[in-house]
Amino acid sequence: MNKFYYMDPKAPKATRLHIGAVVALFYGDTVLLDHRHDGCWGLIGGALEIGEAIEDCAKREVYEETGFNVKNLRFLGVFSNPSRKIEFESGETVQSITVCFSVDVPHQHLKLSSESKEARFYTQDELELLHIVQTHRMIVQYLFYPESWPVIL
């Protein structure tokens, strides 16, 4: 399984950059989090592919992981702190740069991909009880404060 690091002095040294997009899908006063196979919860998203725009990456990942076909993404922020790292199963470690968007969805009915154990909409208070993946923790704290967007960290 991949390992995720943020502000961890014991994290391995990164050898390259990894760029990804995540999307906070809101339904009313709740946001969707995905229970990943690594045991943590996180936002919907994934890696940018060569030749792909970051917004298209976000829309593709949302569709692949939830079945939602989203259009009007709002820019939430970019998270590029050099301590955000991912160590892949192969042993390679990357510095993770993540662009975050938000979008409102019209209902809670989604189709989970095989990448997920489960997914659920949570209130702001409920998020505090979840084991959220290291690289998403710094994002989640801004989700319910749109007046602070865009966040650049």
What can you tell me about this protein's structure?
The chain is an alpha+beta fold. It has a single domain (3-106, 115-148), classed as Alpha-Beta Complex (Nucleoside Triphosphate Pyrophosphohydrolase), CATH 3.90.79.10. It has 3 helices and 10 strands; from the N terminus they run βββββαββββααβ. The longest helix is centred in the middle third of the chain and has 13 residues, at 54-66. It is globular.
Please describe the structure with a list of short key phrases separated by commas or semicolons:
153 residues; alpha+beta; Nucleoside Triphosphate Pyrophosphohydrolase; 10 strands; 16% helix
Low-confidence stretches: none
Morphology call: globular
Residue share in helices? 10-25%
CATH class: Alpha Beta
Radius of gyration: 15 Å
